[in-house]
Amino acid sequence: LQDADTPACDLELIDRLQAQWDLFGQYYDLVKSVAFQINGDRNRRIWINVAAAYAMDQDGNGARKVAVPKADGTAVTAMLPLFILIPMVPVAVEDYRRRGFSEKEIKDLMFGFQDGIRLVQLHTGMPGVDATYYDWLMLFAKAMIFQNEGLQFELRQLPEDMVYIKNKHTGQVVGLRNGGMVHRSGLAILGSACYEDAEGAFEAAFHEDIQNIYGHLCTGAIIEPEEKMFSKAQWEVFIRPGDDCLSIHIPRGVDISVETMEQHFVYGRKVATERYPEYKPVAFYGYSWILNPKLVQIVGPNSKIAGLLDLFIKSPQKSDGSSVFSFVFDRKPEKYEDLPEDSRLRRGLKKLYLNGDCIHPYAGIILR
Q: CA 72, CA 332: separation in Å to the nearest integer?
């Protein structure tokens, strides 16, 4: 741990990262200005030194546990979490190099930092790194992410909410919900926005014994309310929570046609196998508002979104229903009536929210 009076922000490192990787882009002067202010504030300097030392010593999941403070409307608090990440960038660069990434590939990945600052500005009106984008940029700071033509692959483990079983004879794979109270409609996890009414809710628990597997199927758009039994003579647990996966992230503007996505899957599998041999991904994983089946009613069954949805074995996730505003409308409005209607998707989403419904993210896997 550095001495409390040691500057937290290495100005020479900031200059070097900007010169080599254009790490901060148009925000370079702002980053330098905030760094000077942090170095002149003993309390913030101590906090950054402690937080950065802790994060450097942890893996990506551990480093994400740092509780970053909320911005108070000043540039310093808006940018503060960035300075936990900056010291890790040289380590990440060397990790990427060791794994065989080219200098161009690394520079393209490092663009994530200035893009993250830009997106926070887009969503909040002020450039910065909030808690969400601190978690996101940690993937780059720990070399846990790579990309292909914009689509990004994160190396992670499957979360706890689903178990996937496979028919030993036909090869069919189905998903079973692994815990949680589900709204009676099966369309959302109880407590999600628009789905708070507990009447008729059911618990979707997974369990097994020597002979059978028990659980609630996730079919298409819903979690089925009736528990079903699957004989182990015919079925086996195929994928469990904690198994390695490649999580896909789809930035705005990326082609999501099935043909292009299939090419991405081939690329992602190849890179993971050759450059991250310690990972053994069993599937591709997705978590996004764009996987909500209600979108097909808006964009149509022949749309690219509909084609992407068909690839996933998926399940609804608990949420406040607001993520769609950041990704489709840039930020949540004070009134839904103020939402723009300049595209088919925006018009449909505006109508849906005005009618009292919500779009929640779905998560699921693709077997390739």
A: 19
Helix (H) or strand (E) holding 157, with range, is strand 151-157
Neighbours of 299 (CB within 10 A): 15
Single-letter amino acid, residue 172: Q
Quote the distance between the C-alpha of residue 172 and its chain's center: 28
Q: What is the DSSP letter of 156?
A: E
Q: What is the DSSP string of 39-69?
A: HT-HHHHHHHHHHHHHHHHS-HHHHTTS-PP
- Range 55-60 contact pairs with CB under 8 angstroms and sequence separation of 24 or more: 55/84, 55/85, 55/88, 55/138, 56/87, 56/88, 56/91, 59/142, 60/138, 60/139, 60/142, 60/144
For the beta carbon of residue 9, count every other beta carbon within 10 angstroms.
23
| Helix, strand, coil percentages in the chain from 3-state DSSP, rounded to 5 | 40, 20, 40
The phi-psi region of residue 226 (left if phi > 0; otherwise alpha if psi is between -120 and 50; otherwise beta) is beta
pTM comes to: 0.93
The one-digit pLDDT tens for each residue of the chain (368 residues) are 456 566 889 999 999 999 999 999 999 999 999 999 999 999 999 999 999 999 999 999 999 999 999 999 999 999 999 999 999 999 999 999 999 999 999 999 999 999 999 999 999 999 999 999 999 999 999 999 999 999 999 999 999 999 999 999 999 999 999 999 999 999 999 999 999 999 999 999 999 999 999 999 998 779 999 999 999 999 999 999 999 999 999 998 899 999 999 999 999 999 999 999 999 999 999 999 999 999 999 999 999 999 999 999 999 999 999 999 989 998 888 899 999 999 999 999 999 999 999 999 999 999 99
**Which residues are 244's β-sheet partners?**
157
CA–CA dist 245, 280 (Å, integer) = 7
Residues pairing with 314 in the sheet? 364
Residue type, 206: F
Which residue is associated with the tokens 């893009």?
Answer: 115
H-type alpha helices, the chain: 11-21, 28-39, 42-57, 60-63, 75-79, 82-85, 89-98, 103-124, 131-141, 258-275, 295-299, 304-311, 323-324, 344-354
